[in-house]
Amino acid sequence: MASDLELKAKEAFVDDHYDLAVELLTQAIQLSPNNAHLYADRAQANIKLHNLTEAVADANKAIELNPSLSKAYFRKGTACLKLEEYQTAKAAFVIGASLAPGESRFTNLIKECDELIAEESGVIPIPENTTSRDVPTEHVQPENDVPEQQAVTVAKPKYRHEFYQKPDEVVVTIFAKGIPRNSITVDFGEQILSVIINVPGTDIYTFQPRLFGKITPAKCRFEVLSTKIEIRLAKAELIHWTSLEFSGGVIVPQRVNFSSVAGGQRPTYPSSKPKRVDWDKLEAQVKKEEKEEKLDGDAALNKFFREIYQDADEDTRKAMKKSFVESNGTVLSTNWKEVGSKKVEGSPPDGMELKKWEH
C-alpha cells in the first residue's frame, strides 16, 4: 500500500502537483512511519511549495531514521539555504558530499554557501595583486601613485521575509524584532503590497513588491508580533502562486477547485503523461481505511454518529441537528416527527446540572 502511494506521489510531483504529492506521501508515512525515503521525498515536495520549515523537519526525520541517506542532507541544505540559514545549510551539504563523493551538486552548493556567509559578514576584501607580492621594497612605487585598496560592502536587506500559502490566502512574514506598532505602515492594493518600517534613528525599510496574483484588499490584514510582522493576503482568485512577486512572464494559473473537493467528486488535473492517477481506486482505498480504523472512547462515538449522519435521509439529519443544538449537546435524536414540532429540552447526565451560559 505504502509503495503504491509513493509511486502515485512521484507521478504527482512530475506533473507539478506538489500539494497532492505531500498528501499522498503523508498517507504513505502513516502506513510506513520508519521509511526515511518517504520523509526525504515529502521534504522535496514541501520545498517546491515553499513550506521550508516543514521541509527541514521532514529532512531531519529522514536523517534520524537513516543517517547515511545523502538526499536527506541535500533536501535539508536546500531548505536551510532558502531560509538564509547558511551555516546550517553548509553543514548539511558537507555531510551529504561525504556520503556521495561523486555528486558535484554538493560541491557547487557548498561554494555558494561560502559566498553567502562571506556576504553576510558585511565586508568582502578585494583580492591582492599577485604580481606585486615578490617585488623588492625598493622598487615599490610611491604611496601616492598606488591605488588605495578598497573594501566592498555588500548591502543586505535589513529584514528577512518569507511566505507560504493556503488555497485562499498567502501569508507573508517579515522577521523584524521589537518594532513598535506605530512605526509600521502596511497598505494593500489590487496587486501591490506596501510595507514601510520607520523607526526613529534608523534607515527607513521599504518592501513594495508587485504580487504574483491579485488580492482583495478589504479582506487582507496584518499583525505585529514581538519578533515578526505577519501579513495575510486574501487571494482574489483561487490559484496557486508559484512565487510571491510577479515575474513578468506569461502565467498559466493552476486553479484550486473547492467545489469538487468538498463534494467528494473525483478531481482531475492536466497532464502530459499518458498514465493517469486512478482516483476512483484511491478514494476507495481511503474509505476502506476509514471504515477499518479502530477507535475507542469519544473518538469511536463521534465516528459512529458521523456514519449515522452520512447515511441518513434528510428528515433524520434535520432531527439530529435540531435536537443537538436545542439541547446544548445533551440530546441527539433521529426522529423528526418527535422533535420537529417542539423545542428539545436539555437532558444532562445523572449527577450533573444544565446551566445557561451567561455572557
UniProtKB/TrEMBL annotation:
Annotated ranges, domain SGS: 268-359
Keywords: Repeat, TPR repeat
GO MF annotations in UniProt: protein-folding chaperone binding
Region named Disordered: 127-146, 338-359
GO biological process, any: response to stress
Xref: Gene3D superfamilies: 2.60.40.790, Tetratricopeptide repeat domain
Domain CS, chain residue ranges per copy: 156-245
InterPro entries: CS_dom (IPR007052), HSP20-like_chaperone (IPR008978), SGS_dom (IPR007699), Sgt1-like (IPR044563), TPR-like_helical_dom_sf (IPR011990), TPR_rpt (IPR019734)
TPR repeats mapped onto the chain: 36-69
Repeat keyword on record: yes
Family: Belongs to the SGT1 family.
PANTHER family on file: PROTEIN SGT1 HOMOLOG
Descriptive protein name: Protein SGT1 homolog
